[in-house]
Amino acid sequence: VWGWAAPGEKISVDFAGQKKTATADSAGKWMVRLSSMRASAAPRAMIVSGAGDSHLVLTNVLVGEVWICSGQSNMQWGLGSSVNGPQEVAAAVFPLIRLMTVRNTTSHTPLADAPTDGWVVCTPSTACGFSAVGYFFGRQLHNELKVPIGVINTSWGGTICEAWTSAETLRKLPDFALFQPAGSGPNVCTVLYNGMIAPLIPYGIKGAIWYQGESNAGRAHQYRTLFPAMIKDWRIHWNDRIAFGFVQLAN
Questions:
Q1: pTM of the predicted structure, to 2 decimals
Q2: Is the Cβ–Cβ distance between 216 and 228 less than 8 Å?
Q3: Of residues 244, 161, 167, 248, the one with CA closest to residue 207
Q4: Burial letters 119-155, b for 16+ CB under 10 A, else e
Q5: How far is CA 90 from CA 80, 102, 146, 203, in A?
Q6: Residue 164: which of 69, 28, 77, 58 has the closest Cα?
Q7: Phi/psi of residue 178, each to 5°?
Q8: In the chain, count of helices (H) and strands (E)?
Q9: Cα–Cα distance, 66 to 145 (Å, whole number)
Q10: Which of 109, 160, 166, 211 could bond 75 through an S-S bridge, CB–CB 3.0 to 4.6 Å?
């Protein structure tokens, strides 16, 4: 759990019988790590307190598995536009599944805060425009594991793998050693990693699923090196060997 406050301000986080404290650094950033706990049977409240009487109360909080869903258009494609979309949308009533969509954002430097409207409960209205692949994946996990599932959709149609990879990793690859993160649009090296992945780190995720490849199909041999480097890159930044599953549209 992390956030920002006045430099030097002491912060406490109360949740599920735990209380952890931190002090904001010179840039105002603070972070606490809660001890691991069992998946929620019911929602609880989290209280974040700062100096004086300042505090935030986050209600309807669950503990479970969180997965990131990323890639290009086949991941971005909405549930309502899918086969049997109206029927699937009408049945999307899962109080223990939570959805979050990261807005399409580019940046030449890593952003600190995620461009998103936050978590929403899975209902027909919230699921309709959400990633169909992400929704079905989350529903399958929830039905099989019987635990709360959070799905973060951070995808953008027509995008290339190197846009989703950090600068430090790209520069280790011969084909990208001299790249300059210049230009506009999503198909520029690192700009989607900076804008849509970096702000999510180090959120406690179980893993990621990825549906991409068509926009790199013309450089398929290069992708043999680039894509594994991107997977390793994400794992290094999350400081964990997160699970990573992928589907590819093109040969």
A1: 0.95
A2: no
A3: 244
A4: bebbeeebbbebbbbbbebbbebbeeeebbbbbbbbb
A5: 9, 23, 21, 30
A6: 69
A7: -110, 20
A8: 7, 12
A9: 13
A10: 211
* Residue 248: pLDDT band with limits 50, 70, 90: confident
Tokens of 152: 């973060």
* 3-class state of residue 172 by DSSP: coil
Closest CA to 150 of 97, 101, 114: 97
- Strands of 55-61's sheet, edge to edge? 18-23, 10-15, 44-49, 55-61
Extract the tokens encoding 84: 């049997």
Strand partners for 116: 102
C-alpha–C-alpha distance, residues 168 and 147, integer Å: 36
Mapped onto helix, strand or coil, the DSSP state of residue 212 is coil
d(CA 213, CA 156): 12
Start-to-end Cα distance in the chain:
41
Strands 207-211 and 65-71: parallel
Q: Identify whether the C-beta of residue 58 lies closer than 8 Å to the C-beta of residue 45.
A: yes
Nearest to 247 by CA among 70, 12, 48, 62: 70
